[in-house]
Amino acid sequence: MRYAMAIDTKKCVGCSDCVVACQTENDVPIGYCRDWVVEVTNGTYPQLEIEIRSERCNQCSNAPCVRCCPTGASHIADGGIVLVTENKCIGCGACINSCPYDARYSHPDGYVDKCTFCIQRIRKGLEPACVATCPTKCMYFGDLDDPNSPVSKMLKIRKYTTLIPEAGTEPQLYFLM
Amino acid sequence: MASRRDFIKISGLGIGGLAVSASAYGFYKTLADTPPDGTKLKINVTRTPTYCEICFWKCAGWVYKNEDGSIWKVVGNDEDQHSNGRFCPRGTGGPGMYYDEDRLKTPLIRTEERGKQSFREASWDEAFDYIADKMKRIAEEYGPECFALLTHGSGGDYFGTLIKAFGSSSIAAPSYAQCRGPREVAFQTTFGEGVGSPERIDIRDTRCLVLIGSHLGENMHNGQVQEMSDAIDKGASIITVDPRFSIAASKSKFWLPIKPATDIALLLAWIHVLIYEESYDKEYVEKYTFGFEQLKAHVKNMTPEWAYGITTIKPELIRESAREMANASPSVIIHPGRHVTWYGDDTQRLRAMAILNALLGSWGRRGGYYVPEKVDLPSWPHPPFPTPSRSWKDAFPDQFNLAYETLASGICDATVPTLSKACNFKGWIVNGTNLLKTIPDRRKLIEAIQNLELMVVVDTMPMEVTGWADVVLPECTYLERYDSVRVSPHRKPAVALRMPATEPLYNSKPASWMAKELAKRLGLEDYFSWNSIEEMLDWQFKQIGTSLEEMKKIGVKTYERSYDDLYFYPGQDVEFFTNTGKIELYSTDLANEGFDPIPVYTPHEEPPEGYYRLNYGRAPMHTFSRTANNPNLTDLMGENAVWINPKVAKIWGITNGQYLYLENQDGIRSTFPVKARVTERIRWDSVFMVHGFGHDNKKLSRAHGSGASDSELISRVHMDPIMGGTGMRGNFVTFKFEPAGEEVAS
Questions:
Q1: Can you name the CATH fold of B612-736?
Q2: Topology (CATH level 3) of domain A3-176
Q3: Domain ranges for chain A
Q4: What is the ipTM of this complex?
Q5: How far is A56 from chain B (nearest CA, A)?
Q6: Pick from A148, B455, B645, B745: most CB atoms within 10 A?
Q7: pLDDT tens figures, B12-21
Q8: How are beta strands B556-558 and B494-496 bridged, if at all?
C-alpha cells in the first residue's frame, strides 16, 4: 500500500478551501496550516499564465524528516504516511529544517505538526478533508498499488510533475499539468 | 534563500507571525483518548442540517459537533444541488462566524449622535418598546408607508412579513439595484423571464462558457465553480473577457484583455460576426425570435475592425472567439454575470449578452440555459396584508417602470426630503447588510440616514452600519437558529432545512423571534400566529409531503420534476412571456419606455492623466464585507491589495508590497493605506482591488484598518436609466503616499 495524491493544476482555482477544511477538520490553530496554496504568474501582459498548486507534506518515500528525527517521533505509518508522535516530539525543529518543502510547523502546544493525509479519515474509508471538500474536484487520492484508485488512474493518463525531485525525497504529491 | 512559504501568495501567510491564542476560539477540543501521533479520531460526534448564510448561494450542509457539543466543522450535504456535498472556503470557514469574539452580544441603544459607535446595553424588552413606540409614531404622523426594510439575509423574511403587516411594501435588497438588477431586466425584456438565483445555466454540460468580466473561481459561486471544473474535464472551452488576467482567464482558450467600459462594442461585433457569417442558429432564431431583421440592419457596420478601435481586441481574435461559440451552439453560455452594475448602461450590455444567447440558441437548451423548477411551498396562513397607498416608486414618477424589485438606492434617495417626492421614508430596518459598504455615494447615504426618525440595525457583527443605528439588535448566527425553508429553483425542485446546531451565544436571538416580538407590540400578532418556528416549519413541510422530523434527518429533500421539461424538445412551440410572445431581439418594452430597443455602444469617460479606473471584485475566501472579521477566513486573506501594472508602478516608483493611499476623482482618499500588488495580471489603465476591506469600526478587531475600502472611493454613480441600477465602475483613482490631511502643499 502506497498512499499518494494528485492535484490537477488545470482545474484548481486557488480558493484555499483545502486550507480551511484542513484547519477545521484537524483543529489546526488559527494562524497555522498543514496545507497552503501557491500561485505563480509567468509572462507579461497579455501573454500570461498562472500555475496554482495546493501544497502540503509530500509524504516522501525517502523522508529526510524521519531520518533526522532524534527521538523517533517522526515515523512512517501505514501506506507510507509520515506521522509525528506528539508526546515523543521534543520540538527541536530538526525535521522542519530538513524538509525541502517547508511542510512542517511548530504547534503552539510544543510539538511539530504536519499533514497526515487525514489518516484518521482514510482508515474509516473517507477521503482526506481537503480532497472531500475541494469544489473543483481537482484532487485525487488513493493507493498507488491499486491500479483502480483515483490517483493511479490520473497518473496513468495525465502528464505530471513533482516538487523538487532533485532532492531525492521521492515525493508522493503529484501535480497534473 | 527564502523559504518556500515566503512564496505563498494566497494562504498561510500567518505562519508563526499570527500566533493568536487559538484556545480563545475554542479550537482545542481533542479527546482524552487521542492517539498521540496526529491520528486524532473523534468519537461521539453529532451532526445537524443547515444551509449556509455566508453568501447567497445557500449551500445545504451538515454542522458537526464535538462530543462536548461545541461546533467542530461544517461540510456539504451530498444530496444538495447547490453544493453537491462540497462547501466553498467561506462555507467551510463558517464556524468562524460563530466563534468570532467580536460579535454583537446584546441589544444596544444609541447614546451619542449617529455615526459614533456609542451605545448603552439594553434589554430586549426595552429595545422592542423603543422601536415599537417610534414605529407607531411614524405610522400616525406620516403613514406606515414611510417605513422601509433593507435586507440581505434570511431574517429578512420575518421582518418582511412585519413591514407588510405594518402597511408598507418598500422592501429592498441591495442585491438588486447594486448588483444583479440590470441582468434580470435585460433577460426579462428579451426572454420574458429573469435569470434568478442560482443562475439557470447548464455549465455542467456546456461546450463553451463565455465570461464577460465574471471571474468565476474568484467569485466562489459554489455550484458554478464546480460545474466549470466539470466542463474543463469534459473538454469545454472558456472565453473570458476581462481587463484583468483572472483565474478564469488563465483557464481559458481565449482571453480577450478588453479596454474597460467597452464591452458593448465587443458584444455587438460578435453579433455582427454570427449574423454576417451566418453561423447563428437559424432554425431557432426563425422559430422563436422577434426583430432579427432590425438587429441585422443595426449591426451591419459593427465589424470586428470597428470594435478593435474601441476595445483594443484584435479583429481576428473577435472572429475566432465568435466562431468558437458558434461551433459549440447551442451548448454555449454567454454567462449573465451577477454583479453587473458597472457603467450605467448595464441593462443594455446585458441585453446584448441575452441577444447573443438567443442567436446561439442556448436558451432552453442542454449546455445553455435550462428551465428551472422550484417547490411551491405554502406560507403559514395569515390575514391579508393592508394595501399601502404609496410606495417607494411614487418618489420616481415615470421612472424605472421595468424594475420589478425595489431599489435600495431608491429608498435611500427617497429618504432625503425634497418637495417633489411623494414618499419620504422616516424609518428603516436594516437587516444583514452593511449599507456603508453596499450603497455607493456615502455622502448621500449618510444624508438619508440623518433624516430618519428611526433606524434599526439587525446584524451578527458590529459592522459600520450599526454605528448609525438608533437600536442595534444582535442576531444569532445561522448555526444557532432556524430560518425559513430554502426553496430555490434548480434542475430539480428541492427544499433544505436550517436548524440550530447549538444554543445562541451571548444574548443574541433569531430574527424570527425578534419580528414576532415586535409584531406583538404593534398589535400585528395575527401575522405571526405560530407558537414556535418549529410548528410553522413542520406545518409547511407537511404540505409538501415531508415533516420537520424527517428534514432534521436528511437536511435536503429533492423532488422529481413535474414534467420532463428541463430543456425545450426539438421543434417545441414555446410562448415566451414577452409582449410578442417571442424572444425579443428588438425589445418592445424598451421601445415603449423610450429606450434603445437594440443595444447601442456609447463611449464612457476615460480616466484623466495620472488616474486609473477603479475595478473591484471578489476573492474566493470572502463574501462582500460580511466575512472581513471571520477568524478562519481572515487567516486565509486578512487584507486586500491594489493591483497595479508594473509599467504603472515604475512611473510612480511603487514597489510590490508597499503601502499607499488611493484618492479618487472627487478628492476622496482612502481612510487606510493599502498594499500594492505589482502584477502583470492587470492592464495599465485600471487598478483592481477585492471589495469588502478597509473597515473603520474598531470593534472589528481583525478587520479594522486592514486594507482599503473600494466602497468609500465609489462616490460617483452612473445610474442605469432603465432600472435604476447604480453603476459603480466610473470612478478613477490615483496614488498618494500620505493619509488625507497630512500632505504638504507643493
A1: Barwin-like endoglucanases (2.40.40)
A2: Alpha-Beta Plaits (3.30.70)
A3: 3-176
A4: 0.96
A5: 11
A6: B455
A7: 333 333 333 3
A8: antiparallel
